[in-house]
Amino acid sequence: MNLLVVGISHRSAAVETLERLAVGPEAAADLARALLRGGEVREAVVLSTCNRVEVYAVAASFHGGLAAVVDELHRVWGLTETQADLDFASCGYVRHGADAVAHAFRVAAGLDSMVAGEPQILGQLRDAYDTAREADQVGRHLHELFQQALRVGKRIHAETDVDAAAPSIVTAALDLAERALAVHGFQNGLTETRAAVVGAGSMGSLATATLARSGVASLAVANRDRAKAERLAAVWDATAADYGDLAGLAADADLLVCATSSPEPVLRAAHLAGRTRPLVVCDLALPKDVAEEVALLPGVTVVDIAEIQKADAAGAAADTLAEVERLLAEEIEAYNESLRADAVTPTVAALRSAAADIVEAELARVARRGDFTDDQRAEVARTVHRVVQRLLHEPTVRVRELAGQPGAPDYARALRDLFALDAAVLAAAQGDHLAEALKVSPATAPVADALAPSPASTSETAATAPAGKTPPPQS
C-alpha cells in the first residue's frame, strides 16, 4: 500500500489561490466518497482549513492514487481546461511514504501552519479524522497514522513551550489590529475598543474569547444562526447582534472581526456608508469575508490572512522550535521504523504458510501408514510443529528487527528469493485481512512476536513501541 498526502497550502499557493480553491465541509465529504468509489484509493481523509486543502490517502499504487486524487480535486474545484493556471501542478504538492508521515506529524505539531506552532490545527486534524472514521473511510493504515500524529501533536504542546511562544492566527491578527488602532489614537490598546465578531464557528469563537479576555470596552457577536451567537455571547458576557444588520453592527464598532464560512463576502462598502470614524477590520476567512472595496474606504484598515502572512506577525521562539524539531525527529523515526518492520510481515506470513503446507503434506503421508497408532501420529505431529516453530522463530524475529533499521536492505525480497516463495501465497499474505488475523496472542503462539504487524500489536512487544503508541482496533 502507498501512503500519500496531496494538497495545497499557504506554503505552496498565494492566498488568492487558496481562496479560489477553498473546499467546504460538504465538498470535502463528497471528495472522500468519490475517491473511495473510484477503487484506486482504499482510505481517505480530507483536511480542509483556511490555510490548506489536503487529502491523506492510501492507494494500491503511487501513480494511480495520485492521478485519482488530482482528478477529484480538479472536479471539486470545478476547474476546466481553460483554467490551466489553476491546475494542481501549478500550486500543489505531494508527499509519499516516509515523507507523508513526516508531513502529517509536522502539521499536527503546528510547524506547517502560517503561524508556527499554532494549536488550532490539532483540533482541525482530529475533526477531519473523526469525520472520515465515522463515514467508514479510514482503514488500518490511516487510523494508525492519525492516532500517532494526534498523539505527537499533544506531546509537542505538553512538553514544550510552543503554546506560549506561538499564538494562533487570531492572536496574530489582533496584534496587527491593535497596532492599526494605535495609529488611529487608541493608545490603551484593546481595552478602550468597541469590538464585534461576525461568525460563531471555531475561528469566530476563538476571536470572541480572545477579545473578551483582553478586556475590550464592549463586545458583540453576530451569526447567521442567532441561537449559536446567543450561546457564544452568553459564555463571554457579550451581546448577541442581528446578522442581518451588519451596517448597524459596524456603525457601533471600532474593531470588526469577520470569520464566517460564507462562499461570498459578507461585509461590503455599502455596510459602511456614511461612516466617519476609523475602523479596523480583521478578515480571518477563506474565501474572504470582506469585499475588496472595503479596504479603499477612508479611515478603514483591513487586516487579512495575506497581511498576517507578509508581516510574519508571530512565531515560536527559535529555541522552542529547535526542541520541537528534536521531538518530531524522534517520533518520525520511531514510526517509520515500525512501518519498515511492517513491510516484511507479509513475506514472513508467506514463509510460515509455505512451511505449514510442507508440514501438513508430510503429516498426511504419515497418516496413511498403518503401523502408527493414533497417539503416535499425534506425537509426531506435535514434534514436527515444534521443530518448525523453533527453526522459524529466531530468523523471523530478527528479520523484523533488521528491517526496521534505517537504510536496511530489502529483507522481504531476500526471503522470497532464498525460500522461493510462491507468488500466489505471497499475494494472499499481503491482504489486510491476513495482516489483521496475524495479531495473535503470545500466550497461544510461541512465534507471535515474529508475526505481529507492529511493535504495539501484542502485550509482549508493547514495551518496545514508541512512547504513547496505541495499536489500531482489532478486527
From TrEMBL:
BP terms from Gene Ontology: protoporphyrinogen IX biosynthetic process from glutamate
Keywords associated with the record: NADP, Oxidoreductase, Porphyrin biosynthesis
Composition bias type Low complexity, residue spans: 450-468
Pathway: Porphyrin-containing compound metabolism; protoporphyrin-IX biosynthesis; 5-aminolevulinate from L-glutamyl-tRNA(Glu): step 1/2
Site (Important for activity): 103
Domain (Tetrapyrrole biosynthesis glutamyl-tRNA reductase dimerisation) ranges: 323-421
Superkingdom, taxonomy of origin: Bacteria
Oligomeric and partner information: Homodimer.
Residues that, per the record, bind NADP(+): 199-204
Ranges of residues in domain Quinate/shikimate 5-dehydrogenase/glutamyl-tRNA reductase: 186-310
Recorded catalytic activity of this chain's protein: (S)-4-amino-5-oxopentanoate + tRNA(Glu) + NADP(+) = L-glutamyl-tRNA(Glu) + NADPH + H(+)
Sample GO molecular function, one term: NADP binding
Residue ranges of coiled coil: none
EC class name: oxidoreductase
Protein name: Glutamyl-tRNA reductase
Miscellaneous information on this protein: During catalysis, the active site Cys acts as a nucleophile attacking the alpha-carbonyl group of tRNA-bound glutamate with the formation of a thioester intermediate between enzyme and glutamate, and the concomitant release of tRNA(Glu). The thioester intermediate is finally reduced by direct hydride transfer from NADPH, to form the product GSA.
Function in brief: Catalyzes the NADPH-dependent reduction of glutamyl-tRNA(Glu) to glutamate 1-semialdehyde (GSA).
Cited CDD domains: NAD_bind_Glutamyl_tRNA_reduct
Region annotation Disordered: where it falls in the sequence: 448-475
